[in-house]
Design a protein that fits this description.
It contains 16 helices and 15 strands. By secondary structure, it is of the alpha/beta class. It is globular, with a radius of gyration of 23 Å.
Length: 495
């Protein structure tokens, strides 16, 4: 067994993670004659339902502000410790006020009533509102709202983790128990929001590396909406905080993660909208449940080989394949969500969206490595897909393709299709390392370098617990990472 422990940190990460786990639930089979396509034991363990009944629960730690958990909100050790402290140190009268329980979500009410889940999408208040799996109590890691600001600074996030770990014994308690429940723990699959949980995730991964030096880490990092290539130094007081925080996260992940796929904030999908709109319809700016569903389908499909029955692939193999040059620990996530039928060779070029760079997929020459997963394609579609792959300069083993059954669309999946919501979806997803990755990295390196030279940024740096020398070192580290991708990315970014 090669079990994976999953980490979700931040609101968008948990929205995407909820879609991910709903997809895993859709792979469950309830007939002895039906063989599941995935090995559930890699991602699930025996846990307890809210009714204290044994059930399969994700091998998961989900971090978010307590107020974002919705009906999953529970009293954790931090809250209990606070109450105990009041009882022992305050001798006066104590008045406790409790909030009314959060009502059951519309989606869960429909599930219980076996009502029509297809007529209209239910109202979603929290990411837990549409979850189809039970989370064990140790998976629910609710950060007290008083400890977390909307966008925690780098040093604040690290201190937040330290305090939370001390108060809850996270690493010695919940995390260690997850590891001990594995027969042969292979590593982490992690999703996190850089604006709110960047410093927190850095501190967590640092602690994880101290505990599990040989375990591998596969990371999907959801960046802020700030674009370093178009920020402008005049906006340093408004944007520097966010962009430098993203840059610090990237530097950290380069050191601590085996392979990382930065994902553009949906507010920066403008270059992809025309392509996406050919198969999907939704509001990029406002609907977190829909944009997270798009990303989750790509993440779930790209990582499916880790869970497929009979597959020998693991996180280390994926990282080694994509980073065979030993200097490209950042990759790109892209694909086609809701592929048309029939698909032609141009389909796989014209409809492909790169969610890490926002670039259109026009020329694949110079790509270092590529891992493709297709879902639900017929023989004629696969012939067109293979013909498209043959145009690339890559050959095996630098390019690999796995063809799997169609992506299941649970009732919790939002109605983002131009036609009736299907029961399953044809799609492709790819993990790629390429020179184009350096375009975003160069943007961060330039901005950080300019910030270090601008005295107007001193206040911003102080608020983040940084000094000018720290920022100069950060810029130098980012340029060193950029050098690992060669100069091709510069030319592509200018096209």
């Amino acid at each position: 067994m090669r079990e994976i422990i999953y980490i979700q940190a931040g609101s968008f990460a948990n929205y995407a993670g909820t879609h991910f786990w709903n997809t895993q639930e859709s792979y469950f089979t309830y007939d002895d004659n039906d063989e599941p396509i995935v090995n559930h034991d890699l991602s699930f363990e025996e846990g307890r339902s809210p009714q204290n009944q044994p059930t399969l629960c994700p091998r998961l730690l989900a971090f978010d502000q307590k107020s974002n958990f919705g009906t999953l909100t529970k009293t954790n050790k931090t809250d209990t410790a606070t109450d105990t402290s009041l009882d022992t140190t305050w001798r006066g009268r104590v008045v406790r006020e409790t909030q009314d329980p959060i009502p059951q979500s519309e989606y869960h009410a429909r599930l219980e009533e076996e009502g029509d889940l297809e007529c209209t999408d239910p109202n979603i208040r929290y990411w837990s509102d549409y979850s189809r799996v039970f989370l064990d109590r140790k998976s629910i890691q609710a950060i007290p709202d008083a400890l977390e600001s909307t966008e925690a600074g780098w040093s604040v996030g690290q201190e937040l983790f330290r305090r939370y770990n001390e108060d809850t014994e996270l690493m010695e308690g919940a995390f260690r128990l997850l590891v001990e429940n594995c027969d042969n723990f292979q590593g982490l699959q992690m999703m996190h929001d850089t604006p709110t949980f960047g410093g927190f995730s850095h501190a967590f991964l640092t602690s994880f590396r101290d505990e599990c030096l040989k375990a591998s880490t596969l990371n999907f990092s959801f960046l802020s909406g700030a674009d370093p290539n178009h920020a402008g130094i005049d906006n340093v007081s408004e944007r520097a905080f966010t962009i430098i925080n993203d840059a610090l996260c990237l530097q950290s992940l380069h050191q601590l993660s085996d392979i990382t796929f930065p994902i553009l904030n949906p507010s920066r999908w403008s270059t992809l909208e025309n392509t996406l709109s050919q198969g999907l319809t939704y509001d990029v700016q406002t609907a977190c449940i829909t944009t997270s569903a798009v990303i989750s389908s790509l993440v779930e499909t790209a990582t499916l080989p880790l869970r497929l029955k009979g597959s020998r692939e693991d996180i280390t193999m994926i990282a080694d394949h994509l980073n065979w040059r030993k200097c490209s620990r950042f990759g790109e996530l892209g694909g086609i969500v809701s592929s048309p039928f029939p698909a032609t060779e141009t389909t796989f070029t014209d409809l492909y969206c790169n969610f890490s760079t926002g670039l259109l997929n026009k020329d694949e020459h110079g790509v270092f490595a590529r891992r493709n997963v297709t879902r639900g394609l017929l023989d004629q579609d696969l012939a067109a897909f293979d013909a498209r792959c043959d145009l690339s300069s890559l050959r095996e083993p630098l390019i690999s393709s796995i063809h799997a059954p169609a992506y299941p669309v649970p009732t919790s999946f939002p109605s983002i299709f131009r036609h009736t919501k299907p029961a399953s979806m044809r799609m492709t997803s790819s993990l790629v390392t390429a020179p184009s990755t350096s375009i975003q990295l160069m943007g961060y390196a330039r901005f950080v370098e300019q910030t270090a030279r601008t005295r107007r940024s001193d206040g911003v740096l102080m608020s983040m617990g940084l000094e000018s020398d720290d920022v100069k070192e950060l810029a130098s580290a980012l340029w060193e990472i950029v050098d690992g991708y060669g100069n091709d990315g510069m030319d592509e970014g200018n096209d």
